[in-house]
Amino acid sequence: MEKITPVDIQHKTFKKALQGYDRAEVDQFLDDVIETLEDDAQHRAALDAEISDLKERISHFKAMEESLHNTLVLAQRTADEVKASAHKEADLIREQARLTADREIVSYNDAIGDVRREHQRAVEACEKAKSELRNLLTTHLALLEGTHNPLQQAQLAAQSASAAEAPPNTDTTRIEVH
Questions:
Q1: d(CA 1, CA 29)
Q2: pLDDT digits (tens, 9 = 90+) for 54-101
Q3: Which of 106, 115, 136, 154 has its CA 20 to 30 A from that of 96?
Q4: How many angstroms separate the first and last alpha carbons of the chain?
C-alpha cells in the first residue's frame, strides 16, 4: 500500500455523483489517510522510544566514561605515590647499606690494626727470646769451654745477670728458633 503525503491529500479530487462526491471513494480515501497516519504515529512512537533508549545509553556511557576517567586518574595518582614510595625506600636501603658497609670497614680496619700490633709484639718477643737464648747459649758455651779470661768471664757474668734480671716472658706462645 502506498503512503499518502500531504501533497496527495491537497491534490486529491473526487468524482461527482448525483448528490456530490462518491461516498464509497471518500470513505476509502479517509480509511487510507487514517491508516497512513496511524502507521506514521506508530513509527514515530517507535522512533521516540528508540531515541529515549539511545539517550539513556548515552547517559550510561557518559557515566561510565566519567567513572573510568576518575579511575584512571586515581590509578595514575596511586602509581605515582607507589613509585615515589619505592624510590624513598630504595634510598633508605642504599643509605643503610652504605652505613653498614662503613661500620664494617671501620671494624675491619680496627681488626687489621689489632692484628698488626699483635704481630709486632710477637716479632719483638721473638727477637727478645732469640737475644736471651743467644746470651744464655754464649754463657753456657763459655762455661763449657772453661774460659779463664777474666774479662770474658766478666762479660759473660754481666750478660747472664742481665738475662736473669729481665722479666720472665709471660707470653705462652711457642717460639721456635732455627
A1: 12
A2: 999 999 999 999 999 999 999 999 999 999 999 999 999 999 999 999
A3: 115
A4: 134
